[in-house]
Specification:
Distance between the termini: 55 Å
Oligomer: single chain
CATH topology of the largest domain: polyphosphate kinase like
Shape: globular
Largest sheet: 10 strands, mixed
CATH superfamily of the largest domain: Polyphosphate kinase middle domain
Structural class: alpha+beta
Radius of gyration: 27 Å
Number of helices: 19
Number of strands: 30
Strand content: 15-25%
Helix content: 25-40%
CATH architecture of the largest domain: 2-Layer Sandwich
Length: about 700
């Protein structure tokens, strides 16, 4: 599949439909994040947060997506065997988009700090330190910063050590009257706060970058050299973060994974950001030392890098510059669960938890209840990403110590969470938990939990199935859904999945669940073709889909074919979006970026007026169908399926934070109605869920 990208990133390839690269569509998503950081209607600290998210996203994008493009380019023409655009063409477009967005980011960044100063919070650099704060700053440097400063002197005859990924460095040039100069690198300590509050000046709260405190102290750092002139310029590196595993099964998987994680720090650089004001001779010296001369990985930037640290910008008690906190919505029927427990509730009806509107803690409560219930015999759960101090993990360990048979499938290849998951695996084993360390050849991404309880002499199943991670930290900001169910058919399906994890050479026989790579593609095709058949009969045919990413060639081709056959599609896609919906009738698409991260996956098949509603752990990417274990599951309770249909309809009606995914991904806001009639879906969903508790 070849082809050329036009200015919007669309590839007109050797196929019957246009296709947009994952990378350019993802950059369009990050541009939506940047829009939030530049929007004067967004509270100031929230704008700073979005700028930090944008920067953090971009770092990961380079570490993974750009690194992948460069590796594909190095393979010559072999990429043509894959379903993707020419990686060299895509990389050229990526560089152009990143440069354009960098300029937009800098404008938004400068404006944020102009507006912050109007609120009495002023960011200063080393040249603006008031004389009376000089003693404070020197004391802070000596006591808090200096113990972490270890300069690397750049000698003409010596090679530089390979510098680590993620930290930022100050490249320092020193001179003295009538003498030779010297060059050095200083790593900005990553274990210290990046933003340092200073004593107030009148009504103004001052704050400094850690970088500038180090700049302020350069004469002290290099006091033994008697230099009297100092210049400093920021530089950082982003390295290939993909883990490469050697299929050497004589070596411990833990050891191989540890080696691969360490290799990230010395992986090939995919981006070197540097202060654009650095003099060319000094830059060339650095590039020679770093073996980056002539590299295509150089990105000139501004004075400060690693601006993902804006996520930790101090708040100074100014809650008025944040979004108003919302009270958690109670779940109907659970007001007294602390007295009677969750098992009796679930035997009567399924529950659907919508985070962050509802408390995630209901899941923890169920595991805690199971851990001491004498009739509970077995607990099984998949783990992809957990909270740093996970109550879920502690509850599972407690259950094992109480004699329950506890099994946890720990996915060791959860990107950037590998070390944390390895640590949890060891803690589980110490507590007596049976750990399944992934499934060979697959990444387990499904989010399922099974509890087996002896009732009336027989084992009965209680299950939790989710669209997001079992993570109480991210559940505060990720919009996801968790189904709690006593349905025994679903329970047996979930149990069968864990048998598959133990013995992957025996594919499970599933009734209600649909799993990849065991037939999810086929199931999805069957449902779409049914809607096509309805359209052919002149009946209403429609499918509504909410995802994070849509970039699977086969699925996009199927959606295009169904749209041409008369099936109406409504798509809400947060991030990667390779389908060019503007080129097809019957396909409408939007994306929502707002206060919470839209993470859930909802699929609604019209079914001739009898809608079928599914939730899924899977996005529509090749990996989710072909090389990951994912599950799509039905919502059988009619009241709960109606909730999800209403949830989708509210989002589809958004006229404040929804952007239209048009042919060129221009990120134009969807509009409609008067000011009083505008709908901000995340606020409207909270109101809707609250209304359910009053009925």
């Amino acid at each position: 599949m070849g082809g050329e990208e036009d200015e919007s990133g669309v590839v007109f390839a050797n196929m019957d439909f246009p296709f947009r690269s994952k990378e350019t569509s993802w950059l369009s998503f990050n541009a939506r994040v940047l829009q939030e950081g530049a929007d004067p209607e967004v509270p100031l600290f929230e704008r700073i947060k979005f700028l930090g998210i944008y920067s953090n996203n971009l770092d990961e994008f380079f570490r993974v997506r750009v690194a992948t493009l460069k590796r594909l380019i190095s393979l010559g023409d072999k990429w043509k065997e894959l379903h993707m655009p020419d990686p060299a063409v895509t990389l050229k477009k990526v560089n152009a988009l990143v440069a354009k967005q960098a300029a937009e980011f800098n404008v938004a960044y400068e404006q944020v700090f102009v507006d912050l100063e109007k609120e009495g919070i002023r960011l200063i650099d080393e040249t603006e330190v008031p004389p009376d704060l000089d003693p404070f700053l020197r004391k802070y440097f000596r006591e808090e910063v200096n113990p972490h400063i270890y300069p690397i002197i750049l000698k003409a005859s010596a090679n530089l050590p390979r510098l680590a990924d993620l930290p930022m460095y100050l490249s320092v040039k020193m001179n003295k009257n009538r003498g030779r100069g010297m060059h050095a690198l200083i790593e900005i300590p990553g274990n210290l706060p990046r933003f340092i509050p200073l004593p107030k000046k009148g009504d103004t709260q001052l704050v400094m970058y850690l970088d500038d405190i180090i700049r302020f102290a350069l004469p002290e750092i290099f006091h033994s050299f008697t230099f009297d002139e100092f210049e400093s310029y920021a530089i950082k590196f982003t390295r290939d973060a993909e883990l490469a595993f050697d299929d050497d099964f004589t070596e411990s998987f833990f050891d191989r994974l540890s080696d691969s994680i360490k290799a990230r720090d010395v992986g090939s650089p995919v981006r070197a950001n540097f202060d654009a004001s650095i003099p060319n001779p000094f830059l060339n010296l650095l590039l020679r030392k770093l073996d980056l001369t002539g590299s295509d990985s150089l990105y000139p930037g501004a004075r400060y890098h690693n601006r993902r640290d804006l996520l930790s910008f101090p708040r100074f008690g100014r809650d008025d510059l944040l979004n108003k906190k919302s009270e958690l919505v109670p779940v109907k029927g659970l007001k007294k669960q602390g007295v009677r427990g969750l098992f009796p509730v679930l035997r009567k009806r399924d529950l659907l938890i919508h985070t962050p509107y509802h408390k995630f803690d209901h899941m923890i409560a169920l595991i805690q209840e199971a851990s001491i219930d004498p009739r509970v015999k077995k607990i099984q759960m998949t783990q992809y990403r957990l909270a740093k101090n996970s109550c879920v993990a502690r509850a599972l360990q407690s259950a094992a110590r109480n004699g329950k048979e506890v099994t946890v499938l720990v996915e060791p290849q959860a990107r950037f969470d590998e070390e944390a998951n390895m640590s949890w695996a060891a803690k589980y084993q110490d507590a007596g938990v049976n750990v399944i360390l992934g499934v060979q050849g697959l990444k387990v991404h499904t989010k399922i939990l099974s509890i087996e309880r002896l009732e009336a002499g027989e084992i009965h199943y209680y299950s939790i199935l989710g669209t997001g991670n079992f993570n109480e930290d991210t559940a505060r900001i990720f919009a996801d859904h968790m189904l709690f169910t006593y349905n025994q058919v679903i329970g047996r399906d979930v149990s069968a999945m864990f048998q598959f994890f133990e013995k992957p050479y025996f594919p499970p026989k599933l009734t209600h669940l649909h799993a990849s790579p065991l037939g999810l593609r086929t199931f999805l095709r069957t449902k779409i073709e049914r809607e096509m058949a309805l359209a052919a009969e002149g009946k209403p045919a429609e499918i509504s889909i909410k995802l994070n990413n849509l970039s699977d060639v086969e699925t996009i081709q199927l959606i295009n074919e169904a749209a041409e056959a008369g099936v109406k599609f409504r798509l809400i896609v947060r991030s990667m979006f390779s389908l060019v919906s503007g080129s097809k009738e019957n396909i409408e698409s939007i994306s929502i970026v707002d206060k919470y991260l839209e993470h859930s996956r909802i699929i609604i098949f019209g079914n001739d007026g009898k809608p079928e509603v599914y939730l899924s752990s899977a996005d529509f990417l090749p990996r989710n169908f072909d090389s990951r274990v994912e599950t799509m599951f039905p919502i059988l309770d009619k009241k709960l399926s109606k909730q999800l249909i209403t949830y989708f309809e509210i989002q589809w009606s958004d006229t404040v934070k929804a952007r239209i995914l048009d042919e060129k991904l221009t990120n134009q806001f969807k509009s409609g109605g008067s000011e009083s009639e505008k709908i901000r879906s995340q606020f409207a969903i909270e109101e809707y869920l609250r209304s359910l508790t009053q009925s």
